[in-house]
């Protein structure tokens, strides 16, 4: 029976009345009404979730605490705390406060049932049961027993950096290689072999990408956990990230092979026990440990040791490159310490005060966790230092990104990267220094959690980080290619044409080009550093091609104001075909850029010899030079070489046939797909992935990816 208009109106009125009543309750009667905070946050968690999708919720929370003090209402029933004295209260070891349901989106569904693990469970009994057998494996002394395994992975890292970058002059993308090392190191110490990320210089089986997608989902959804029931855990139509299938399958394969080798007596043992050895031995002493539980533990090993550790390692990688005076001082300490080479040992580097200060300061200013670590207030409630009372059932917690900027603990210059804050001050007593550092350390360690639910893998993470940077800087001279470049510290990275350009530019820094003309010569003159304009807006770096504006080759000449120059070069062989027909389209730029990318791919795989060979296949005549630019390599883009077809009619008074735009773009699509499938280079695949969507999705006359910095800049300039 259909609802009448009266019935619908009644439902609408009831809904509106409920919303109004809830607003009045929150304003007048909520026990949290005296806790200040953003207006929108008082009524909904969606505001906080929205900020999480933008990747800057940590910066907003710091600003809120600066404005409203140590307690800020960030949701209808959620309070953010920034009082260091409450760390041991909220994250107590005795009678621990219950984790909230923010962690439930990390559950895995098996046969229609949610499966909890020791990270996301709110059940303290469950947590105790499954951590008690393995907690002893994660102590610092036990982790140091596995130091030789870490050294194996570090030796591989040194070899790859030397062969791929130090010996060739190519630029190393530190954020990528930090991740490759972290994941391979976690795998090696867990089951004696790595994933092969460093060997292939690539994200093998998209394991890292799958993990990152999971984090991008968890970050906003954890702020509104009931949404997970309608999205990722929806039994009818699942909407969520692809599970870490390849990582799980790889671990299952290794575990199966290991069990078979143990059963046959053919297992090859490492000098020290791996985690897979230790976990497997528990089957003889703990009745509830089976292969499934061992798999669960191993997956947590790799995920926490890979993804989380990679996030933590990016901080010192970035800040050392951006602060050359700090780097110089740290390197001097390392190289004067008579360390074991090529891989320094923990007992050596743990005694270096400035190196330790750099690592601690990196974790302080850029902690790997940017969300509140939520707990549920117990029945006795929580009294703040100023006497305000927070009732039972309220969600409270501390954000590591907030507590590590506390001016009372770290000083007024909390936004400055200054490792010296960790050192003993002039005139400071040894006891006073120890007390001050202990308080700073407690705040900084919040990125690993605190109390009974502290991350068991924190010692492994810190060991890997300390040893990697000591090894890297004692063996190599490490410098940034562009001192003005800034990383985007966000929860989820967003890529597009601008990032592709920046990636290309970073591979060929102008400062090193003269050193080796053969190896470092850019594949095309328009990919040389001076032809790529990078600028910042609101702290984010954008890059555009100075050439290829709507295919007419108008030149971005005024770098200060990013204004388009008046010079036009109509002699480029890769200008958009729409210009030849007299019908320029908005996506002509993308055609020109696509030609350059194809040229780059051919050069990368076959060098200039292949480029010249393909150019020779072209039957088109030489086009005249413009503005003194050479055109030898442009022959590759002549029509005969790109499956040109006849449109008919004359072109701007010339009696030449011109290519069909659709056929040309289809050719580029085929070329990109071929190299995407066959290319063994992680760099090439990344470049293609970054530009393919922007280049190919636009129909004639449309503006592809109009939100991209590339398109915005060319249109507005």
UniProtKB/TrEMBL annotation:
The chain crosses the membrane at residues 6-25. Its cofactor is heme. It holds the Pfam family p450. One of its GO terms (molecular function) is ATP binding. The keyword Heme applies. Residues 378-717 form the Protein kinase domain. Heme binds at residue 455. Keywords: Heme, Iron, Membrane, Metal-binding, Transmembrane, Transmembrane helix. This is Protein kinase domain-containing protein. It comes from Gibberella intermedia (Bulb rot disease fungus). The lineage of its organism: Eukaryota, Fungi, Dikarya, Ascomycota, Pezizomycotina.
